[in-house]
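Morning!

This is the sequence you dropped in the shared folder:
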Amino acid sequence: MGTMKQIWAKVRRLWQRIARTVTAFCKRKDIEVSIRRYGIDALGAMAQGLFCSLLIGTIIDTVGTQAGIPFLSTIGGYAKDMSGPAMAAAIGYALHCPPLVLFSLIAVGSAANGLGGAGGPLAVLVIAILAAETGKAVSKETKVDILVTPLVTIAVGVALSAWWAPAIGTAASSLGQVIMWATELQPFLMGIVVSVLVGVALTLPISSAAICAALSLTGLAGGAAVAGCCAQMVGFAVMSFRENRWGGLVSQGLGTSMLQMGNIVRNPRIWIPPTVASAITGPIATCLFRLEMNGPPVSSGMGTCGLVGQIGVYSGWVADVASGAKAAITTLDWTGLVLVCFVLPAILCWLMGGLLRRWGWIKENDLKLS
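The structure's back. Tokens below.
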């Protein structure tokens, strides 16, 4: 018995020594495993990287296409192609990566986003974090740091991309299958389900636009998707105006509600008003106004981002009129588009947000963008 106690005591002391060594090493390398570092800092930075590549590129591309300026479409295409590297670099910046690690993450982001499909942004988030922390661990630990650090960072990131990214993409696409199933329901229920799910996907670190494109989500289902995305973007923009003023109104209302993901992790209750609003505007779009997305399917998942969703609906109207499927663009069409995409989300979220602030569920600066 005495011998066993001595053995366990030695094991315990060894474990404590190892734990102290690992803790000291992580502190020296600025490796902090926490919800704040990964769920708030890294996620928030990734949203900014996505905005500065895919979303702004889509806006420029759409303007170029509608205005007949091919050069703008070319610029937009280049920006969209860099979404993976931009997100990974933004994550590396948030994790305080040294230069060699930060620059190496560009290749990692390209691999993770390319292999992740509809779940590209989520794949980039997970894999870039692991690659970044591994790179930080080996950084400046050898005399040939300029070779070792990029090699380890890229090798780990690309290997994980080949191993995990397709599965992450499949998981994200399964959300698309749920959306496709929802389109087979009656318009009222379908309007609620599709609007809520696509709206939530738009705010989460997955690509709602890619999911809609992969599923060819058009027609009434596309209209419900537009409604849900607008509820999230316009809703957060109006609801957080007190904290973020005009800059926040534009960046969220015409950019992306994903900028609020860090705040949602910190206080999930702030997500209630936009989600409830999407459940209301979805069936209004499908049942009352018969709002359809007959433009490019990718527009169904863009909401008010650069007004791409609204331009998609309008281009569908124009195409339907030209083909004879629609007699004319009516006042009811415009009224439905404006109410569903702008007026109702703004009013609903402003009212619900004020109520939650009064209840203490949303506190001052809970919606403030960093």
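Headline: Residues 32-171 form one domain.

More detail when I'm at my desk.
O.
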